[in-house]
């Protein structure tokens, strides 16, 4: 005993209404697949951890209490730089104004 | 590209130019994702006129490469390396080993049997 196709389609239609899905018996591609996808941008954009608190913020928090905190890394860095400068190996001074034209250059 | 790069980064991880670039790409993709999905929907929808779909295809192809999700690559948050990055810990296998042995990763311990 075979069921006519029209009757099966009616059943399908009723089922789609019941469960609020799209009635698409021919299986036409409507791109709903894309619409159903969730946006993954926020998850991807939060991959790298955000800056929570810098040492300077930490120092600022404790300043009103009269507590002083030494940033050892910063002190080490400044020590290293002053040592380099004492040996004459420091970074050159920043230039002021545009560079003078090269006299050797021919036009 | 410079137009996607933020003036100031608020990243708390290791940064070099490659991590900053990757971060900018992630931000660009996040901003352009609704537009990309809309275009993708138009392209996949066969009930729309062929001309509309072709135009959507062109438009999607002409979007800046920074807005493409395939440009995003997970990088190590401790060293910026791109290869051998364990997704669960966001760090390379060697950084993972060092931190795991030092006990910095809760629940991770060296197997021995």
UniProtKB/TrEMBL annotation, chain A:
Q: Does the keyword Ribonucleoprotein apply?
A: yes
Q: Where in the cell is it found?
A: Mitochondrion
Q: Which domain of life is it from?
A: Eukaryota
What the entry lists under InterPro entries is as follows: Ribosomal_mS33
UniProt keyword annotations, A-Z: Mitochondrion, Ribonucleoprotein, Ribosomal protein
Give the principal location in a single coarse category: mitochondrion
- List the residue ranges of the region (Disordered): 83-107
UniProt biased composition (Basic residues)? 87-97
Respond yes or no to whether keyword RNA-binding is given for this record: no
Q: Name one GO cellular component term.
A: ribonucleoprotein complex
Q: Which family does it belong to?
A: Belongs to the mitochondrion-specific ribosomal protein mS33 family.
The name this protein goes by in its record: Small ribosomal subunit protein mS33
Which species does this protein come from? Canariomyces notabilis
TrEMBL record, chain B:
UniProt KW keywords: Receptor, Ribonucleoprotein, Ribosomal protein
Q: What is this protein called?
A: Glucocorticoid receptor-like (DNA-binding domain)
Q: Which Pfam families match?
A: Ribosomal_S14
Per the UniProt record, the source organism is: Canariomyces notabilis
What would be an example GO MF term here?
structural constituent of ribosome
Q: Name one GO cellular component term.
A: mitochondrial small ribosomal subunit
Q: Which family does it belong to?
A: Belongs to the universal ribosomal protein uS14 family.
Q: Which GO terms describe its biological process?
A: translation
């Amino acid at each position: 005993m075979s069921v006519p196709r029209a009757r099966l389609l009616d059943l399908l239609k009723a089922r789609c209404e019941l469960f609020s899905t799209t009635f698409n018996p021919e299986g036409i591609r409507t791109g709903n697949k894309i619409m159903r996808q969730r946006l993954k941008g926020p998850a991807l954009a939060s991959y790298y951890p955000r800056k929570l608190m810098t040492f300077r913020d930490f120092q600022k928090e404790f300043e009103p209490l009269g507590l002083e905190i030494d940033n050892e890394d910063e002190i080490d860095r400044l020590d290293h730089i002053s040592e380099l400068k004492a040996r004459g190996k420091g970074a050159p001074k920043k230039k002021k104004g545009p560079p003078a034209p090269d006299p050797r250059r021919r036009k | 590209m410079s137009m996607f790069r933020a003036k100031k980064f608020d990243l708390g991880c290791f940064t070099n130019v490659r991590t900053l670039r990757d971060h900018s790409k992630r931000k660009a993709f996040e901003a352009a994702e609704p537009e990309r999905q809309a275009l993708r929907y138009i392209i996949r929808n066969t009930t729309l006129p062929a001309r509309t779909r072709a135009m959507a295809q062109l438009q999607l192809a002409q979007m800046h490469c920074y807005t493409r999700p395939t440009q995003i690559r997970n990088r190590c948050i401790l060293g910026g390396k791109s290869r051998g990055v364990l997704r669960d810990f966001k760090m390379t296998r060697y950084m993972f080993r060092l931190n795991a042995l030092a006990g910095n990763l809760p629940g991770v311990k060296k197997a021995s049997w």
